[in-house]
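User: Here's a chain of 162 residues. Predict its fold as tokens.
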Amino acid sequence: MTAEPPNNKPRTERLRRLNRIFPASPVYFLTTCTFNRKSLLATRKVHDAFLEFAHAGEAHGAYIGSYVLMPDHLHLFVALAQDRTLSDWMKSLKNSLSKSMKQSGIPAPHWQKGFFDHLLRSAESYSQKWEYVRDNPVRAGLAKSWEEWPFRGEVWELEYRE
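Assistant: Prediction complete.
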């Protein structure tokens, strides 16, 4: 027996939410910041360490697409293997870059806890986010055009598929 609402009018059936369907390897937009927003990342040494980590994508269970290393934060797009979690992968990336910073004499801590993630829902979303992110160095006054900024690029060509 269905309970009647207090005003004795029959309840209309609510639309059921559809289960979300995600591609096998979804693409995420991620941002992570340095501890106390210190300017640590926009250096050749950190960039080289980042690229070394990124080119070993298969070994880390993730593929990095486009990215921008800013002095105090990092924006990137990544597609994960199904057996990886974002948290574990981000921990691995941060540890790898921290190792490079320690070798350069920069004492820890290097990173704020956590990170921001956004699951991309369309190819349009990827291109819109990238256009915004790539212009970060220009908005920050670090470069006259995004092409001039040396700490950005694309490691793997990621493609959004439905």
